[in-house]
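Here is one record:
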Amino acid sequence: MSANKGWWVPPEGEDSVSEKFLRKTRESPLVPVGLGGCLAVAAYRIYRLKARGSTKMSIHLIHTRVAAQACAVGAVMLGAVYTMYRDYIKRTAPGAGEK
């Protein structure tokens, strides 16, 4: 039996999972921010579940979903605005890229 080198080893020439995640994070940095926002909102709303008062459970869960989706959509919109700024405004600014 061969020695177990870990749970999963990528084939030669391919990035490991952590290297791939770091590369993708550098390419689009607001994706982890949106994911973190979704998780933070969901964790907070689950924490506040007992203090919901007379609100029905289904309404509480709908509000949780809407707040988490708002974080994700907000991060996507910020990423789109940043990309447009970087590609169109910063690139076409006078003196940009000239030495």
